[in-house]
Amino acid sequence: MKTGLVLEGGAMRGLFTCGVLDVLMENHVDFDGMIGVSAGAAFGCNFKSRQAGRAIRYNKRYCRDPRYCGVRSLLKTGDLYGGEFCYHTIPEKLDLFDGGEFARNPMEFYAVVTDVATGKACYHLCGKDAPVEFEWIRASASMPLFSRPVELEGKRYLDGGISDSIPLGFFESIGYKKNLVVLTQPAHFCKKKPALLPLFWGFFRKYPAIYNAMKTRYLNYNASLALVAEREKSGDALVIRPPAPLPSGKVEHNAGRMQLTYDIGRAAAQSMIDKINHFLEK
Q: What is the C-alpha separation between 217 and 195, in angstroms, rounded?
C-alpha cells in the first residue's frame, strides 16, 4: 500500500508544516509520495530535497526584505510575494536549494494549481528540473488578488487552494491509500462563505472561472475536511493539526511569530512521532 503525505496551504501558517516536516526528516520518516497546495508545495519541496531547517531559516532572514513580500513588491511586480526573488534568487543564490537531492529522491511530488480558464484543479507531478518546477510551485502559491497568473505550457494558473485546498481525495484516487495529512487550522475549524467576495468582482471580471471557484471554495473545503475526518476515523489517515489558531497569518513580517508557528509544528510532530511510525508500518 502506497503511503502519502498531504500538505494543506495557508500562506505563513505553513510554517507550522515546516516544523512538522523537519521533525519527520530528523526521524528519517519517508513516504512514497507527497502532494502540496500553495504554501504546502512551497515549503514541502524542502522535504523532497531533504533540507531540514531551510524553510524557517530563509523565511526569518528575508521576512522584512521588500523584495520578498510587501506592498512595494505588489506595486512593482504585481505579486505580493516577489516571484523572481522568492522562487529564483533565494533558492539559486542566497539559500541554495539542493536540486540534485530533489532529483535523486524517488518520492513523487505533486503541486496543486488552479487553471485560470476553467477554475478546476490541476495536479502537476514535479520532475527533476528544480528551476522549472519552482515556477509550478510559484503558481500553486499565487494568491488571487495578490498575484499575477503564472503561464506554464500555454496555460495560466493561480493558487491551488482555490480549487482543492486539501487534496486527499485526489491522492487516494491515484493509489495513495494510507496518508499523513498536515492541516494548518485547528480541529473543528469550518470555512465560512466569503461575504466580501462580490466587492472584488471588478478584479475577477477578467477571470470569471476563478470568481466562481472562489464562491464555492468554502463548500469544497468543508467537504474535504469531512473526508479527512472520515478517513481519520477509519484509520486510513493520520492527521497532524495545530492545537489552536496559529500566531502567523497569511502575511507575516515578525520573525518571532514565525519561529513560534514553526515550533508549534515541531512540538505537534514530536508528540506524535511514535504514532506516525506505527501508522506507516501497519
A: 12
